[in-house]
Amino acid sequence: MSEIQVWTLVFVVLTFSVYIYVAYASRVSDTSGFYVAGGGIPAPANGAAIAADWMSAASFISMAGLIALAYNGYGGSAYLMGWTGGYVLLALLLAPYLRKFGKYTIPDFVGDRYNETARLIAVVCAIVVSLTYVVGQMAGVGVVFGRFLQVDTEVGVLIGMAIVLFYAVLGGMKGITWTQVCQYSVLIVAYLIPAVAISAKITDWPLPQVGFGQILAELEGLQSELGFGSYTDALTGSGQFNMFLLTATLMFGTAGLPHVIVRFYTAKNVRAARYSALWAIFFIALLYTTAPTVAAFAKYNILQTSSAGTLADQSWFDKWADVGLITGVDGGAIVDLNGNGAIDFAGSAGNEVLINNDILVLASPEIGGLPAPIVGLVAAGGLAAALSTASGLLLVISSAVANDVYHKRINPAAPEKRQLLVARISMAVAVLVAGWLGINPPGFAGQVVALAFGLAAASFFPILVLGIFWKKCTAAGAAAGMAVGLAITAAYFVWTLPSESAWFFLGKDPILDIAPVGFGFIGMLVNFAVTIVVSQFTTKPSATMQELVEEIRYPGRTDLVAKHAQGDV
Q: Average pLDDT, whole number, for the chain?
């Protein structure tokens, strides 16, 4: 066992032990604790849990790779702008009002605000969005275990499934919340330490955001020398239209993600929900302002070694090639095509290697020549990011099935013990499905997650916004909007995604050259249009519901809002 494997094992065993202990100490025996942690989580802890829930494997593992490799610098800012902007939309437009409405889940809000048909459609949307999202997390877990502990991806995913299943089933939202606080601490330390060390090593500036500016001129020179487009010029990685669509999809998708929205129900009150959002923004900013620096430092080091003709001599290069995440340009064996005695990473026709986006952050300590303990710490951070989001998503699926389908539709008289049993069984089934999909993902972690944001934007965002700000939005309109938005977006994914990824993808040319990861914005506009048009011709909500929709937007707590929160209306 190599030194890196030993340190990875040490950090993985240590952190997993902490997660299991915290989950055991936070175990619950009632539905309020299982679904919303009893609504008593302090704002700073809730902010850290929101940040961990929101910053998935895509943020930790993939985002820097997307910026540096897939979008060649500036174009990758779509992910930064989209995900960050979406969080602001969520915090300002939705979270406080949904918290005030006082329901456990998004389908619960939809069922109460609209009707039971809309609730069932919302359940389907929540399951589809959450399962798509969790695939990316499980794929990320497989990448980390496969590379650092040299186990098969299948085994790595199975280990991740077992850990998530244990602490999520035992503690529900309460256990997940306190575990996510620990996971945030692990992931942010794991992300910042190598960034600071590499910045100090390359630029003599320990603050990565300052060191980033010091190397840009040299990075631009290397990009030009090796045939890449400019790293800092706009739209070198994608067209303007697709960059706009991707940014908008990520933004509105973030605001519609059910596992993030439900976190605001764990706050003590509306004021605590607002402070939770503020804390979460601070915690998220620590990683999001560092990600572009990690991308730039890693690419700078890779281009330097490629320019010197020593890329294939790097130990990290061989290790990632061994697990199939660095390949030749055709996805097969790496070949010295031009016979110059070196493997070339270039932006021109002379390129001889494909580097997977998902490895950049995980490999950055080795690329930067940092010691083995830091490599092991980053691996533990990647696992923390993937598992924290996966647990939140699995809780959404579990609560949608147990609360919105079983308790609200099948057996309203079910005792709490029976509801908890159904919730735990639902979560176990969801873990099994997520594990299978994680072993057979339709793309790399960041790409799969982007598809989930598209589905969330096209299904939930319009009916949540209209449900809060338009009192005459009808149940029929919301149900039709969600169904059409989800169906048209999912159909576009099936039409355009590569047929090699899954048997049901057709691999056809995109319509009007719209990339699938940006189509969610189109689906969202269709949802808005259908909801508004159908609402014009269908039965309006009751006078009491219209009054409640008006009152939840005003400060304070009226009698009607209080009665509704207690279930008396």
A: 85
The answer to whether residues 157 and 141 touch, using CB atoms and an 8 Å cutoff, is yes
One-letter identity of residue 9: L
DSSP 326: E
Give residue for tokens 């802890």: 45
Q: In angstroms, rounded to a whole number, what is the distance separating the alpha carbons of residues 401 and 418?
A: 13
Q: What is the pLDDT of residues 275-314, one digit of tens each?
A: 888 888 899 999 999 999 999 999 999 999 998 889 888 8
d(CA 291, CA 224): 23
pLDDT at 478: 96
List the helix and strand counts (H, then E) for the chain: 25, 2
Measured CA distances, 552 to 355, 444, 545 (Å): 50, 41, 11
Q: pLDDT (tens digit, 9 = 90+) per residue, 352-387?
A: 999 988 888 888 888 888 898 998 899 888 888 888
140 and 449 in contact (C-beta within 8 Å)? no
pTM over 0.90: no
Structural contact between residues 462 and 125, judged by C-beta atoms closer than 8 angstroms: no
List all residues 6 or more positions away from 492 whose beta carbon is below 8 Å from its beta carbon: 511, 514, 516, 519, 522, 523
DSSP 401: I
Rounded Cα–Cα distance for residues 104 and 37 (Å): 10
pLDDT in tens, 55-83: 877 788 888 888 888 778 887 888 888 88
**Token pair belonging to 468:** 């809060």
Ordered DSSP codes for 21-39: HHHHHT---SHHHHHHGGG
527 neighbors 482 (Cβ within 8 angstroms): yes
